[in-house]
Amino acid sequence: MLGQQDVGHRVVVRRIVGIREGRPLFSDALGELVELSETHLTLTTDHGRLQVPRSEVHRAKRVPPSRRPTAAAVTALELAADEAWPAPTRERLGGWLLRSADGWTGRANSALPVGDPDRPLPAAVDAVVRWYAERGQPALVNTPLPLAAPVGAELDARGWQSRPPVLVQTMPLAGMPPGPPERPGAPPVELVGTPSDDWLAIAAGRKGGLPDAARHVLTAVDQVRFAQVYAAGTLVAIGRGTVTGGGRWLGLSLIEVLPEARRQGLAGRVIRALADWGAATGASHAFLQVEQRNTGAVALYRGLGFTTHHTYLTRVAPH
Question: Are strands 249-257 and 285-291 parallel, antiparallel or unpaired?
């Protein structure tokens, strides 16, 4: 039987769904175990959230990690994420993307090595270094793993450093669990098409300023919504949602709650509001990016059903 150590892992559950001619009928469910209590266990499956009473569980076990996503799946998601966070200055190096946004965030100021750079790998890295040097910026490369492992090996040989690992997490929108009942008088989550000055101020505080290029990154997406929660006239929670990747992917970013308003479920409410909007536009899955060391956020997203699709490292050229 499963234990608390299995929460957050993929499991298979054989459950009793009926009796026929005196014999039990079984059905198997596969998904991520997101809750385990004395009375039931809860899975997030590809078809939605499933709660199984313990009395119906015939057998349950953790399954080995599923196969790594294909190179095509990683590439498609990385390109959808690039659409959702568009740098104003962009060039192509074969299939690679070179991006610059006045130094605002690593994602918008790094090369994305997906595809063929149309030249030998050492020459491609040299071209990346020159491109950023021409703009007075340090050279950064985002290396999705394991897709960009050869690029990572080349950067290792050159002495490039690594920033903390980032988890690219995904979930089917149909698996988003319902939130707790709204408290009477709880402030609503509003979704708007243009960020307010208050919204931008919170984003600037989190990201260390807000140059003009940042406004492009935040707003230059065809389908984008900015979530905001006001309490007593003060903006206390924000979030941003985009729909990209041919309409499949809802991208979640800048989920932020002011310290004095935390532990009230506001982050979950913001995410659910954006998820409802994304599903209404036709998106089927959500993704987000979170540093592995941000354990509080990782736990929040796990509780909502997110699992890690792949990881990436931001590599930094030596001075």
Answer: parallel
pLDDT of 78 higher than 60? yes
**What is the chain's Cα-based Rg?**
22
Q: Structure tokens of 212?
A: 């003009």
Distance of alpha carbon 70 from the chain centroid: 18
41-62 pLDDT, tens per residue?
A: 888 776 667 889 999 998 888 8
Residue 313 resides in a domain: no
Are 90 and 34 in the same domain?
A: no
Question: Can you tell me the mean pLDDT for 253-271?
Answer: 92
Rounded to whole angstroms, the Cα distance separating 46 from 32 reads: 10
Model pLDDT for residues 160-203, shown as the tens digit of each residue: 999 999 999 999 998 888 888 878 878 899 999 999 999 999 99
Handedness of CA 295, 301, 303, 308 (dihedral sign): negative
Q: How many distinct structural domains can be found in the chain? A: 3
Pair (129, 153) in one structural domain: yes
Structure tokens at 319: 């001075």
In percent, the amount of the chain with pLDDT more than 70 equals 97
Evaluate whether residue 220 is within a structural domain: yes
* CA atoms lying within 13 Å on the CB side of residue 178: 5
Number of residues in the chain: 319
Q: The domain containing residue 96 runs over which residues?
A: 71-164
Distances, alpha carbon 82 to alpha carbons 113, 170, 209, in Å:
12, 15, 21
